[in-house]
Amino acid sequence: MKTHSAQRLETEAAFAASPIKITARSRPRSAMARKAFPYLLVGPAVAYLLVITLYPGLFAMYQSLFVVKFVNWSWVGLGNYTRIIQDREFWAALGNTAIIGGISLALQSVIAMAVAFFCYRDPFVRGWRIIFLMPMLFMPSAVAFIWKLAFNDGRVISDILMSIGVVSNNVDWLASIWLARLTLIVADVWQWTPFLFIIFVGGLQGQDEEIEEAARLDGASWSSIFWNISLPMMKPIIVVAVTLRGIDITTMFTNVYIMTQGTPGGATETMSFFIYRQGFRMFNFGYASAASVLMLIFTIVIAQTVVKRAFKSGKS
Questions:
Q1: C-alpha span between 68 and 79 (Å, rounded)
Q2: At a CB cut-off of 8 Å and minimum separation 6, what does 119 contact?
Q3: What's the Cα-to-Cα distance from 180 to each of 164, 230, 250, rounded to whole Å?
Q4: What tens digit of pLDDT does each residue of 157-169 get?
């Protein structure tokens, strides 16, 4: 006769061998709830972006149709746009933005790619990569004050150049158009090259090492591998990174406001500083809004054209 413990063991063995599984039943959700759930997750973020981006943009477009003097609004339709297209200062500011931003972006791209090329496979450098990002961690206003002190107020750069015999007298960096632009370019390159560097390093490290190893076995040098394999594979990443940085450069304001104030003769006045001057110094709010809208259109068209052509050529 089986004991109680033996019967219990047989029951447990039979239960374990049974294919029937007891699972916890979850409450079924309706089809509408399943469809609405993703939108509920992204809803707060979308609402936040709409409040801080879409509403100010639409308000600027609406305001650009008026001559605004504080509480006095006078309808002019497209009059502000007609005036601004004929404004030489607007086109000069647009040209300054293109020159300063273009040179700065080119230098940042070359320096970031060069540093990334020498660092992305070096295990020692990879451990100290945070050092390369330190300039980007400073506040833009602090960086502008530092470089203003170095170039103008403290004469640090001039003293260094005089000590090595490059110049004989103190350099007035704001007396020359290109020297004044150089100060803005140096400050921007110093702070924002790490932004492109970290993206380029990530792109290079994400590439398949077997491709590089196969090329090295065939006798290819490091430079040949970089120019013929790594760089072409990096093209989409480079285009996106440079486009993002280029869009950010079009809004350069802090360095201009602190370091040069647009001098000499408006040669360093960027579009952001032009809009600020029209809106908050001359109180032409409608005119400043029209300039903002035009700058937005130019930026979107150029960025879209560059990205579209780059990815189209990459597919072909």
A1: 12
A2: 125, 126, 129, 132, 201
A3: 22, 37, 18
A4: 999 999 998 888 8
Quote the pTM value: 0.81
> Quick one: average pLDDT of 188-214?
88
Bridge partners (DSSP) of residue 26 are: none
- The CA-to-CA distance between both ends of the chain, in Å, stands at 83
Crossing angle of helices 177-205 and 130-137, in 10° steps, is 140
The first and second tokens of residue 186, run together, are 């140096």
Distances (CA, A) of 190 to 107, 133, 167, 240: 10, 10, 23, 21
- Report d(CA 307, CA 235) in Å as an integer: 11
Token pair in block for residue 198: 């970290």
Q: In this structure, what DSSP letter does residue 68 have?
A: E
- The answer to whether 241 touches 200, Cβ cutoff 8 Å, is yes
Mean pLDDT of 37-59: 86
Query: pLDDT tens across 286-305, in order?
Result: 999 999 999 999 999 998 88
Give CA separation, 215 vs 4, 211, 220, in Å.
73, 6, 5
Q: How far is CA 297 from CA 1, 47, 88, 178, in A?
A: 92, 23, 19, 28
Q: Which of 305, 232, 204, 248 is nearest to 108 (CA)?
A: 248
